[in-house]
Design a protein that fits this description.
Length: 152
Amino acid sequence: METGLATIIIGVGVSALVQLLAKGTISNLDGADLTTAVNLANSIHELTYGLSFADPVTPTHWGPETGEVLATYNDVDDFDGQVFSPPIDARRQSLSNFTNWSQSVSVQKVDVNRLVTVVPNATVMPTLRVTVTVQHLGQTVYAETWLITQGQ
Ligand SMILES: [Ca+2]
Ligand SMILES: [Ca+2]
């Protein structure tokens, strides 16, 4: 009973913060570039919906597990530090006609009680923060951040 209540309270707090973070940042107001950049950021966001919070075989390992490649990445931290240029769509297909564009992904573990605080990757914590930064010709056009909670 008490455990269930705590889960609900934490869940409400997290989703409020997700909405705040999901607004993203805009650093370049070129309309067409911005539309492209938002779409490329959303592709990565959509892609992460299908991933496990941690690897099913080696959940404490950070980054891609041995033998994994883009097509077989199956948990969120597999994408930490990955840069896609040309960028990829939500089905991980390379978008070869988007030359000079890139998606850079950062995954950080954050404190569930203080979501702005990054904690070491090995910490047992049910919250990850993902940031994708989209660049065109080396300039950042758009960046978006969202949270992923364990069991989502
Ligand atoms: Ca992994
Ligand atoms: Ca994996």
